[in-house]
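Listing S7. Sequence submitted for prediction.
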Amino acid sequence: MSLEIQTQVTPEIAANDHLLKQHLAKTSKIAANDIQHISILKRSIDARQKAIKINLKVNIYLQEEQFVEKKVNFPHYENVENAQEVIIVGAGPAGLFAALKLIELGLKPIVIERGKDVRGRRRDLKAINIDHIVNEDSNYCFGEGGAGTYSDGKLYTRSKKRGDIDRVLELLVAFGATPDILIEAHPHIGTNKLPQIIQDIREKIIECGGKVLFETRVVDFLLKNNEMQGVVTQNGDSIMANNVILATGHSARDVFELLDRKKIFIEAKPFALGVRAEHPQELIDKIQYSCDYRGEFLPPAPYSIVKQVNGRGMYSFCMCPGGVIAPCATSPGEVVTNGWSPSKRDQATANSGIVIELKLEDFKPFEKFGALAGMEFQKSIEQKAWHLAGNSQKVPAQRMVDFTQNKISVSTPKTSYVPGTTSVEMGQVFPGFLTQILREGFSEFGKSMKGYLTNEAILHAPESRTSSPVRIPRDNETLEHLQIKGLYPCGEGAGYAGGIISAAIDGEKCAMMIRASIRG
């Protein structure tokens, strides 16, 4: 017999198996000796009051029933070496989960990745951090595992209706992720642990007869009578298949340009853009936990904040407790920021993108670029930041209060951004309307989070790769009525996902639609 219970406990009780058992015995009126095992199903923090509580959903197993721990297993993956081939362009979460699903459905994936394998990427990340050299095919955005691999591995998604979230999480656990991601309200793997998981997924694909090609960039599509025939790589090689999943991510500008040249309809899509703000983690802990010292039983505090400013949403994005800021440019001559945390979130600083919703009319100065107007708007800000920072991967930076008061910071302390910072009045980076919204918005943030608006916080600009600046239209539910028969736009780059989980689900959806189309 098992009993499901929801309860609130102190952080100390949640962290101690003996104390938790005593608490549950008391609240459920069961003798502690009768409790064989406690299985935590869901866990979240309630920090709304000064006395912080941990919300728990648990199953209590009694001594009379033998408890068998549930093991997460792989689906049945058969060998597909001689099966019908499907090309997948991109080895991010959409591409990798599409490949696994294809194998499960009896089809052979050929994954084509422009960047290096997950270990090889590290040399290029070091080059951009230390030498300010950007490899256009291997960087924080491109390479095996995609943008999420070296920028955190956050698994939280608000897209509950997209598909089976638990299935994706369980697959990640089967490939080596901690089972905690199945129970945490905001699951997170960590940049230090995700690479091995990605490598294990690739090895499973190859073991089952699939192919994974690295340092292979797709430069053209082979079309006949509006149907896919295959793709052409940068070496002039043709790889043939009638079905292609296009899972290139939100930063594949050359792919967007290729689609535009091939007269495959794409459209400009609003996205969000702003800065990345870094605070001492200790300060965020004090604000969020209403305490002088966080203590050993609570994790580094995150925050989430949204305001309406001048008719625009301004909000925190990809918040990284105990994390660092990374240089995420994908071409020379541009500066881009993002953030990540190791699995323990044990760095001294917290950072978050603070971004503003853009509208299609904001791209009007670039309307000559048609569907690529948003991309060119994005690019212009990244290039301006590059020039303001001295034509390097140093980032324009300013203390938060100084920014709101239109003052150049006399000095900026060393931040977690390894290439370094250049003191700049941030209004030079952004169009005037965005600068004004940011200034007003930070003042509003300071009213909601007492202590947030401080010169201890350093702003880094720009945070510009929040989502794709284009959408490749498709029937989002059924994927029928495709523009090009056999071409399946997928994931973040297609404008139909935002983050690891939703991208993985979209990859699986595309794989299932291909299987259905082949069966007729």
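Caption to Listing S7: primary sequence and predicted structure tokens for the chain studied. The CA atoms of residues 259 and 265 lie 7 Å apart. The longest strand covers residues 35-46.
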